[in-house]
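Risk mitigation, structural track. In case the binding assays with S-adenosylmethionine fail to produce interpretable data, a predicted complex structure has been prepared as a fallback.
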Amino acid sequence: MLELLQKAQEKPHNLSLVELEQLLSVSSKEEMEMLFKAAYSVKERYIGRRVSLRGLIEWSNICNKNCFYCGIRAGNKKIKRFRLTKEEILATADFVHSAGYGSLVIQGGELENSANTEFVADVLREIKSRWGNELGVTLSLGEQTEEVYKLWREAGAHRYLLRIESSDPELYKSLHPQGHSFERRVECLHTLKRLGYQLGTGVMIGLPNQTLAHLARDIEFFAQVDADMIGMGPYIPHQDTPLGENIPVTAEYMQQQLLLGLRMIAVTRLYLHDVNIASTTALQALAPDGRERGLLAGANVIMPNATAVGYRAGYQLYANKPNLDENAEETMAALEASVKSIGETLRLNELGDSPHAKA
Ligand code: SAM
Ligand code: SF4
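Fallback model:
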């Protein structure tokens, strides 16, 4: 194993599929510690002990899609739908800017219609006119046409996060109803890259019927699409979804999901080296210190929720989503303390682009 870790640290993309799988499969405490340490040293080399922030604005839970795993899927009639106004989004962006986060992410359900397109473009223009290059803007609004992506890029978005969810067409198919096209999702990733966005993608980790071989191929897929940022996290069952309704979320299950999520972060860092990798909220949902452990396994970005507390309950993608009632100022204090506790510092007032995007 030591030899494999050394080889991985030498240069990017220096592991075969079999070797990726081998590293993903380590299970003893000692081996996992070795894996995390090796990934951390690669992160330190490219990024240092610094954490970039993205203030997350969950702007709407209205979605036309019906992904089998997601709590805000169109078919879930139990949730109350909401959409923030332009003023509410701008007020949140103002907080994100003044708190020094440096970047924000506007995320929401997938809607393809001109009113939605124009609304987002209008918000982006206003953000750009108020804060210019002092605030990086990532969008995560699902699949759209090239025309729409182009409009939003010109209006001021410079990053886009679109997870492939699984790079295996068969597994992807099993997670989505008919009419959700794997090919279109891949095409969207290529289009975003071509349009000059910094590209973020990722997968859910620990899905039913997902093997380590799938995850190893996911990591190769990230390299193939030339991702600048990876946003991935453990799958967490939601009881009001077709995929999650019969999965018992026991303490043992949560522990397994957490450890697999951390190994996936580490092996992805060891393969890609210079990209940004998020330590996602899903890790924190599985363990109170999940996010810090993600940073110690090689991640370097945190996306604190900046959405007004009153709306958070409506954006429950999975069970036990954390910080539903913690306001943004409290989140900032908790963040500073948690990052400090592992010997890292926050990169405030910086866009926090990945070395890969700058290369
Ligand atoms: N609608 C956009 C899309 O699908 O790309 C953006 C918002 S969507 C809620 C963001 C991400 O949430 C998805 O890419 C998916 O990976 C994740 N997600 C949804 N349900 C989840 C679950 N049960 N566990 C973990 N992650 C989940
Ligand atoms: Fe909609 Fe995204 Fe959830 Fe799928 S994952 S149902 S596209 S919000």
